[in-house]
Amino acid sequence: MGVQPVVAESGVAAEEKLRQLKGLIDPVTALQDLATLFRADPADWSLKDSAAEFLRTQHGATGAEGFENTVAELVAGGITTLGQLAMLGAIAQFKPLLVGTADSVAQQMLDLVEQGATDGFMIMGTVVPESFTDFAPVIRLHEEAAPKI
C-alpha cells in the first residue's frame, strides 16, 4: 500500500508541516489535474462543488473501478468538496496520509497491517529527500519492535 507520511517532532509540528505543504499547491491546478483523471472538463466544476456529486457524474469515466472505489471511500470518509478531494490527490495521490510523530505514524502503519489493509508499504515522498529523512525514525521504531529471529 502506498502511504504519504508527514513526520515531525510533535503532532502539532507535523500538522503545521502538512499545512505548509498544502500551501505550496495551487488549488485550481489540483482541480484541473483531478478533472483530467476523471475525464471531466475542469470548466464545469468549482472547488466548492460537491465531491460526491462529482463522483456520481464521472462514475466509470476513468475505466479503473478500483481507483474510483478508493476515491469514493475517501469521500464517504468525510471529504465533502471538490477542492478537498483535489488537494488530497495533489498531496498524497489519494493514498493514506499518515501525519504525526514517528511513534504515532509507526502505530498508524501497524494499525493498517493489523486491520488486514496491507502487508507492506510503499513510502511516497512529497519533498525529496526531506520526506524520507523525516521518515527514518519510523523505520528505526519498526526495527526495534520487530521480533528478533
Describe the structure.
With 149 residues, this protein is mainly α. The protein has one domain. It is 56% helix and 8% strand. It is built from 7 helices and 3 strands. It has helices at residues 11-23, 27-37, 51-58, 65-76, 82-92, 102-114, 130-145; strands at residues 2-7, 97-100, 122-123. The chain has a 3-stranded parallel β-sheet with strand order 2-1-3, sandwiched between helices. Helix 2 (27-37) packs across helix 5. The longest helix is centred in the last third of the chain and has 16 residues, at 130-145. The radius of gyration is 17 Å and the shape is globular. It starts with a strand and ends with a helix. 23% of the residues are buried.
Give a brief outline of the structure:
By secondary structure, the chain is mainly α. Helix content is 56%, strand content 8%. It has one domain.
| Distance between the ends | 25 Å
Measured as a percent range, the helix fraction is 55-70%
List the helices and strands in order.
EHHHHHEHEH
Instruction: Please outline the major beta sheet.
Output: 3 strands, parallel
- Average pLDDT number: 90
Estimate the global geometry from the Cα principal axes: globular
Strand-pairing-aware structural class:
mainly alpha
The overall strand count is 3
Number of H- or I-type helical stretches: 7
**Gyration radius from CA atoms, angstroms:** 17 Å
Number of domain units:
1
How much of the sequence lies in strands comes to 5-15%
Neighbour order of strands in the largest sheet:
2-1-3
Unreliable segments of 5+ consecutive residues: none
InterPro entries: Luciferase-like_sf
